[in-house]
Amino acid sequence: MTKIPLLGKTLDELKSIVEELQMPTFTAKQISEWIYKKRATQVDQMSNLSIKNRALLDDKYTIGCSKPIQVAESNDGTKKYLFKTDDGHFIETVFIPDEDRGTLCVSSQVGCKMDCSFCMTGKQGFSAQLSATEILNQVLSVPESEQLTNIVFMGMGEPFDNLLAMLRSLDILTSDYGLAMSPRRITISSIGIIPGMKIFLEKSSCHLAISLHSPFPDERLRLMPIQKTYPITKVIEELKKYDFSKQRRVSFEYIVFDGLNDSMRHAVELVKLLRGIHCRVNLIRYHAIPGVDLKSSVHEKMIFLRDYLTNNGIQATVRRSRGEDIFAACGMLSTIEKQKQKIKESEIDHLHEN
């Protein structure tokens, strides 16, 4: 019998489990503390549960943690971890150290359906949704887990296309019974799936980052097919209904491509598009990927865009690139080669069996 993971369960669900196993109600809180605060990896480590209750729990349930199977380290200290999911897929997770900050970039899907032209994950295609267990496992199972100050859902996948698992993860990350992180330390990045975005904004207090990349609809559509279904003007129209002038923040990710979206007319249109919304624009250097005929803009143009936006009332920064030498930078995550390798190994095994 396959055991059910406890990682990813809410406190109410743990209460139902202990009730089913005829344990005292307070045992649910003890279990949540062992999983989310003490980072237990085995049921047997829960020493304040009786031996009988541990045996009952262990009979049907497992913690559900699994360590990364591979790590690559960049010259700048960034680390990219490879995880294997229970169904045999692969995902990548990136740890970014920076003075007194430790940021983890987590994945929400195996691959992605959105097919953005500049993204290696999009080129990989979509394979599977990650469960809350698999999302939280990235946070709890990297060696730097205890050092994390910030979490960004900017890895593989579109978080709002896996809305329920993402929201469950946020609940556990921010609840007192869970990891008790401040929502201000967590950012969800999306290309702008409006129905999911609206639910997220109502149910969570975490920050939001929207992939923008061009203020002109025709250009954005060439970069991002989602523009046809959810135009950026409609996304911003929806965002203007919320107050981002206090603790909660909305930002716009803007990869700067040479000769495509780095001109004065783009700067002027960006100001026009974003006027009236309290936000930040993160200008990002494009990281070249195989088979895509796009180039990063020169640094001087990125500085021009930053200064023009800032001088016109929109806070803008040029984001420092991290982990490019290990394919861990923005838009570079992909496990397609691992999947191909797995298929090839399976075919070889099949041949040997015959």
Written description of the protein model:
The chain has 354 residues and is an alpha/beta fold. The protein has 2 domains: 4-62, DNA polymerase, domain 1 (Orthogonal Bundle); 70-338, TIM Barrel. It contains 12 helices and 14 strands. The chain has a 10-stranded mixed beta sheet, with helices on both faces. Strand 13, helix 11 (299-311) and strand 14 form a beta-alpha-beta unit. Helix 1 packs across helix 2 and helix 5 packs across helix 6. The longest helix is centred in the C-terminal third of the chain and has 18 residues, at 336-353. It is globular.
In short:
The protein is an alpha/beta fold and 354 residues long. It is built from twelve helices and 14 strands.
Can you summarize the main beta sheet? Answer: 10 strands, mixed
Structural class: alpha/beta
CATH class of the largest domain: Alpha Beta
For the secondary structure, the number of strands is 14
- Our count of domains comes out at 2
- CATH topological fold name of the largest domain: TIM Barrel
**CATH architecture assignment name of the largest domain:** Alpha-Beta Barrel
* H/E topology pattern: EHHHEEEEEEHEHEHEHEHHEHEHEH
The rounded Rg comes to 22 Å
Through-space gap between termini: 29 Å
Helix content: 25-40%
Q: Give the overall form.
A: globular
Low-pLDDT stretches are none
The share of residues in extended strands comes to 15-25%
* Fourth-level CATH superfamily of the largest domain: Aldolase class I
